[in-house]
Amino acid sequence: MPIVIYIILAGVLGILTGSIVNATVLRTKAGLPLMSRARCLSCVEPLHWFDLIPVVSYFVLKGRCRRCSAAIEWQYPAVELAVGLLFALFAGRILFGLGIPSFITGTEQIILFIRDAVVSVFLVIIFLYDFRFSVIPDKFSVPAIILVILFNLVLGASAFSMLIGGLAIGGFFSVQFLVSQGKWVGGGDIRMGLLMGFLLGLPLGMVALFLSYILGAFGGVVLLLGGHRSTSSHVPFGTFMAGATVVTMIFGSTLLSSYLSLLQ
Ligand SMILES: [Zn+2]
Q: Is the pLDDT of residue 232 over 70?
């Protein structure tokens, strides 16, 4: 099959997965079971299957509930499209061999795609959850850390690089946590640092950490200007760390090599 077909299939898989991400975030917050029947959040009417088609249903319904006309949040199609784009980029990166670690061979490329897809689902959930509810639940960050370690070991990544990455970035936040007695960063940030370091190792983990601060600075200004946050309110740093980690998963090697070539 031509490469483009694989990329499209990955994108469609991502869009379908995106609707699971939306449901997971909102049901976890509402304390509902993950497998419960989908309902309108306003009129609590169970939704028909044809109103649950990712992206398509939102536009067919013009963003409103069929029964009560309550507005459906644009988060739904946005997240579905974003996860679709991520999966397509993960597949494209592997198929075009961009920044793929040298120890990845043959069928391991499929495992690498599964790792990227699974980990990115956790990262998008954390991105949304911290952005909307200002907390990074351990029930997402801890399983993500364990999965990352398992996947990387299966893929034959250097356990040493992984460990050093996790300790360096997790340690960076732990020190801040201890010095400020938990005022500057929270336990959730430490676990995100571990996730970032274990997933990317060094030096890519450092690229992601650096990007988190750049995204945080831009994002903080945008949130302030948009009136979403006041200067005193919580900056969702987990959101920026999750975003930076996903960007580094796709573009990290390219960013790093172009930066290093500038120095020569
Ligand atoms: Zn409704």
A: no
